[in-house]
């Protein structure tokens, strides 16, 4: 076998064996450019009717939510609001029915919203980079749910469209207004 392997020439594959010297810094810069371009592209794409139809209530999406410590999370789109140049999503997320976890996420979100805009933007970009590096460009962390902890839905408002990672093919039939009203009555 060794003789056969020695007789074979090296493959001339620039994908597996790049000819130029690329470093991890080059990878990081290219990934950063991709993440920024994707974030800038979503608001532009929303102008087209095809994407507008995809972003109807009930669509599953993957989003980056660093303000509650989730690099990538599956969510159900409840509402897409457009206020001038800003486009925000209202999402339904799965969460543990644990008061401590809920309170911690609320504190993290409050702390995040008090940060200066530049710092929030940098945290979001870093989170998107981490998500892409750890789980792939459209990946998710493995989900491990304990049978002992009950899962509930929680509504998260005003998530900018640039946090969108992926629009999934699956959609669910929902009544978004009923869900939002139900969450409001439970929280008050």
Q: Any descriptors?
A:
188 residues, alpha+beta, SH3 type barrels, 5-stranded antiparallel beta sheet, 6 helices
Structure description:
The longest helix has 22 residues. The protein has a single domain, classed as SH3 type barrels (Roll), CATH 2.30.30. Strands 4-3-2-1-5 form a 5-stranded antiparallel β-sheet. The chain is 43% helix and 27% strand. It has 6 helices and 5 strands. The protein is α+β, with helices and mostly antiparallel strands and 188 residues long. Helix 2 packs across helix 5.
> Within the CATH hierarchy, at the fold level, what is the topology?
SH3 type barrels
Helical proportion? 40-55%
Count of helical stretches: 6
User: Would you list the SSEs in sequence order as H and E?
Assistant: HHHEEEHHEEH
Task: State the shape.
Answer: globular
**Which residues form runs of ≥5 with pLDDT under 50?**
none
Number of beta strands: 5
- CATH architecture designation: Roll
Domain count: the total is: 1
Structure, briefly:
The chain is 43% helix and 27% strand. The protein contains 6 helices and 5 strands. A 5-stranded antiparallel sheet has the order 4-3-2-1-5.
What's the SSE blueprint?
Blueprint: H1 2-7, H2 24-45, H3 49-54, E1 59-65, E2 70-83, E3 86-96, H4 99-114, H5 117-135, E4 151-160, E5 164-171, H6 176-187
Antiparallel strand pairs: 1-2, 1-5, 2-3, 3-4
């Amino acid at each position: 076998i060794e003789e056969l392997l020695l007789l074979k020439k090296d493959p001339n594959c620039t994908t597996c064996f790049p000819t130029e010297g690329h470093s991890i810094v080059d990878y990081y810069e290219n990934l950063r450019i991709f993440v920024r371009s994707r974030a800038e592209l979503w608001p532009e794409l929303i102008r087209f009717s095809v994407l507008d139809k995809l972003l109807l209530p009930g669509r599953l999406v993957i989003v980056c939510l660093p303000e509650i410590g989730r690099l990538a999370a599956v969510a159900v789109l409840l509402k897409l609001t457009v206020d001038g140049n800003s486009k925000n999503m209202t999402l339904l997320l799965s969460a543990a029915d644990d008061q401590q976890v809920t309170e911690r996420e609320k504190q993290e979100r409050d702390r995040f919203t008090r940060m200066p805009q530049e710092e929030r933007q940098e945290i979001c970009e870093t989170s998107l980079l981490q998500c892409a590096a750890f789980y792939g460009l459209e990946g998710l962390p493995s989900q491990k749910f304990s049978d002992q902890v009950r899962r509930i839905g929680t509504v998260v408002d005003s998530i900018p469209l640039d946090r969108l990672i992926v629009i999934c093919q699956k959609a669910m039939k929902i009544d978004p207004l009923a869900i939002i009203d139900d969450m409001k009555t439970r929280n008050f």
